[in-house]
Write a structure and sequence with these properties.
The complex is a heterodimer of chains A (about 110) and B (about 120). Chain A has about 110 residues and is mainly β. Chain A is built from no helices and 11 strands. With about 120 residues, chain B is mainly β. Classes of the chains: A mainly beta (about 110), B mainly beta (about 120).
């Protein structure tokens, strides 16, 4: 089955700096890569997603890049704000059409 | 649109009892629903996939006789934790996927289960 690795596990940045979270996946047939933000005790919220026919997608301060050859995808958050502090999960949909989640990155944005 | 509700939001029960959790898609028909479990400071782990009117497909290591899933309609799936034990204490989250956006999963708010 699909295996998704995510790094780093924790990330601390100063307000206004950029944050980058990286993921790798194993199933070359995976074609959908969403990113979720989860605040403590709440549901995961979809913040951006990318499909395998696209290399990059941007939505305001958030961007995602995908390298299908290397089976890497990354989340970029620019001009970070304290409200960006949360746990971020990458995920990939493999051949079984199921989402496999990464292990999560705890992002802390300090003032 | 694409709202998924879950009930109850939290439950405390005694060891050995059974607990039922409901997952509803409020404004769309969910062709597929998923049940996840999330332990503290860990990722979401898929437990099972259910399609309306058919038996659920369980992930490896998940006991189907302990975690009973029923997907009786296109808007409702239930997860019953039978003979719950303290190690079943966790955050259970459902998600639903509709025919209109087959890749996108919409998550419920989760149910926190504490077994004493």
């Amino acid at each position: 089955g699909e295996n998704v690795e995510q790094h780093p596990s924790t990330l601390s940045v100063q307000e206004g700096d950029s944050a980058v979270i990286k993921c790798t996946y194993s199933d070359s047939a995976s074609n959908y890569f969403p990113w979720y933000k989860q605040e403590l005790g709440k549901r995961p919220q979809l913040i951006i997603d990318i499909r395998s026919n696209v290399g990059e997608k941007k939505d305001q301060r958030i961007a995602v890049t995908l390298n299908k050859t290397a089976k890497h995808f990354s989340l970029h958050i620019t001009e970070t704000q304290p409200e960006d502090s949360a746990v971020y999960f990458c995920a990939a949909t493999g051949t079984a059409s199921k989402l496999t989640f990464g292990t999560g990155t705890r992002l802390q944005v300090t003032l | 649109g694409a709202v998924v509700s879950q009930h109850p939001s939290w439950v405390i029960c005694k060891s050995g009892t059974s607990v039922k959790i409901e997952c509803r898609s409020l404004d769309f028909q969910a062709t597929t629903m998923f049940w996840y479990r999330q332990f503290p400071k860990q990722s979401l782990m898929l437990m099972a996939t259910s399609n309306e009117g058919s038996k659920a497909t369980y992930e490896q290591g998940v006991e189907k006789d302990k975690f009973l899933i029923n997907h009786a309609s296109l808007t409702l799936s239930t997860l019953t934790v039978t003979s719950a034990h303290p190690e079943d204490s966790s955050f259970y989250i459902c998600s639903a996927r509709g025919a209109g956006a087959p890749e996108t999963q919409y998550f419920g708010p989760g149910t926190r289960l504490l077994v004493l």
